[in-house]
Write a structure and sequence with these properties.
The protein is of the alpha/beta class and 512 residues long. It has helices spanning 11-28, 33-48, 54-71, 90-110, 113-117, 121-138, 145-160, 165-169, 203-215, 264-269, 275-286, 301-309, 352-359, 376-384, 400-412, 420-430, 494-499, 503-510; strands spanning 174-181, 184-189, 192-195, 227-231, 237-241, 251-255, 291-295, 318-322, 334-338, 366-369, 392-396, 433-439, 445-453, 463-471, 482-486. Belongs to the GSP E family.
Length: 512
């Protein structure tokens, strides 16, 4: 009588066997991507007649998907400016989605929803998982271990969470989520757009999830309020647009709130600026220079402003004003204020300008505005010129010169008629530095210029560029290369640096 063959079940031994099977399946071309990993796991369990735990299956999936990606040459359908993920498997996603929709009515009958609502999340998840497995067994679904786990996650997320968005929100490498429709969901990952490997059932499903998201923060989206901007509990920002304004169906855009506060040193590591530029901005914060961070949409203005503001001395009182609170200052003496939109009756609005006037009564040493968008630009200049040195803000503009022009236009929106010469004099006196940041074609956000306002005559404002990014010829390379260079010019605020004993360090920085 032959002895029974003993097969190992520890992941270190199992993984090479399954990886070899994955490579074989991919080489044969029978299956691709995620399906190859799933099929290899099933093959191992069938061959060995041993069942791998769900946790082990998930761990194997996590490690082996990269193998499938490396050998998968079939691109997914995507827009012209997006790079699809190699392991995008629409058939797999749709199958799980169809099964989830099919078993939903039976799950509702099996569960006591009132009792379920009174349970802790772990108990709720367990009850839903048991119901899903029971229905799957009764309907004899032909599911492998991975598909069973995915189906449970799908139903739990749909009932308790944010549906297909849950996995995207949990992915720290994703900074933005854009839902254009049920089957067109894009993400921004490391500065590049990608087609996500998730989908919704239909437009109603998108609307249901959008309603759930904004409802959790006391907002509503319907025909009377088809546009909603809101800040989620974790600080992320969401924009929802529904018909009739959104012609092709409900849309969502979520800008995720980063879990980690980035410092200037972190931005150096990311290639956003050089060491001397970071040292220069540290000195600018210590010298209480007024500065604007200028850039396009999604260029990283708020991230840079947050990093610079970390260099403000801890003994100063700071008041921050934002439409959606994103700044996370680490100093102990900080007051954060946020605007409020009108309610459904159209009353109760608290705009930025009202917040600004209130902030002036709070004895701030510095005022930081998340973004200047309207008539509050005039109030900011007044504050900068009346003892609130070191104030900072961001605004949308593509160059430092355009930033000044935009400030002029925003001041004109205040309704106060002022001569152009006077407005430009205010700008010259109030703003010391303009820091320009851009998201470049390789997805990296770089500080492309640090410019100083050095005066001018009558209606002319003169700019002096102290640092800039000089790109190298690309020659077809995907990654953009270049150098951050200093102009070698001495800043006009050298006298202020002398007063603080920082002139030697400042001269050394700009001469690098």
């Amino acid at each position: 009588m032959s002895e029974a063959v003993s097969y190992p079940t520890d992941i270190a031994t199992v993984r090479p066997v399954i990886e070899a099977r994955v490579r074989s399946l991919l080489a044969d071309g029978a299956v691709t991507g995620l399906y190859a990993v799933s099929a290899a796991i099933d093959w191992y369990q069938d061959t060995t007649e041993q069942s791998l735990s769900r946790d082990m299956q998930r761990e194997l999936m996590k490690h082996l998907v990269s193998v499938a990606e490396a050998q998968n040459d079939t691109p997914a359908q995507a827009g012209p400016d997006a790079r699809p993920r190699a392991h995008y498997q629409p058939e797999f996603t749709r199958r799980v989605m169809r099964l989830g929709a099919k078993i939903a009515p039976e799950i509702m009958e099996l569960l006591d929803l009132r009792a379920l609502a009174g349970l802790q999340y772990a108990a709720q998840r367990g009850a839903i998982r048991d119901a899903v497995m029971s229905v799957s067994k009764s309907q004899r679904f032909d599911l492998n271990g991975v598909e069973s786990a995915e189906l449970v996650d799908y139903v739990v997320d749909d009932m308790l969470g944010l549906g297909p968005l849950e996995r995207l929100l949990a992915d720290d490498s994703i900074s933005e989520i854009m839902v254009n429709g049920p089957e067109q969901v894009y993400v921004e990952r490391h500065g590049q757009l990608e087609l996500a490997d998730i989908s919704f059932r239909d437009d109603d499903h998108v609307l249901t999830i959008a309603t759930r998201i904004v409802g959790a923060v006391g907002r509503r989206v319907d025909e009377t309020t088809p546009l909603v901007d809101a800040r989620l509990m974790d600080g992320s920002r969401i924009n929802v647009t529904i018909p009739p304004l959104a012609i092709d169906g409900p849309t969502m855009t979520i800008r995720k709130f980063p879990k980690d506060d980035l410092k200037l040193s972190d931005l150096i590591d990311r290639g956003s600026l050089s060491g001397p530029m970071a040292d220069f901005l540290r000195i600018a914060a210590q010298l209480r220079l007024n500065l604007l961070v200028s850039g396009g949409t999604g260029s990283g203005k708020t991230t840079l402003l947050n990093a610079i503001s970390r260099e403000i001395p801890a003994n100063e009182r700071i008041v921050t004003l934002e439409d959606a609170a994103e700044l996370r200052l680490q100093q102990p003496h900080v007051v954060r204020l946020e605007t409020r939109p009108p309610n459904i009756e159209g009353t109760g609005q608290v705009p930025m300008r009202a917040l600004f006037r209130n902030a002036l009564r709070m004895r701030p040493d510095r005022i930081i505005i998340g973004e200047v968008r309207s008539e509050e630009a005039f109030d900011l200049l007044q504050a900068m010129n009346t003892g609130h040195d070191g104030s900072m803000s961001t605004l949308h503009a593509n160059t430092p010169r355009e930033a000044l022009t935009r400030m002029e236009n925003l001041i004109a929106m205040s309704g106060i008629v002022l001569p152009t010469v006077f407005v430009r004099q205010q700008l010259r006196d109030a703003i010391h530095l303009i820091v320009q940041i851009s998201r470049m074609r390789d997805g990296v956000r770089r500080v492309t210029s640090i410019s100083e306002i050095v005066g001018g005559e009558e209606s002319v404002i003169s700019l002096q560029e102290l640092f800039r990014f000089v790109p190298e010829p690309t020659q077809g390379r995907e990654t953009l290369r270049g150098q951050f260079v200093s102009s070698g010019l001495t800043p006009g605020f050298i006298d202020r640096a002398i007063e603080h004993g920082l002139d030697g360090k400042l001269r050394q920085i700009v001469s690098v």
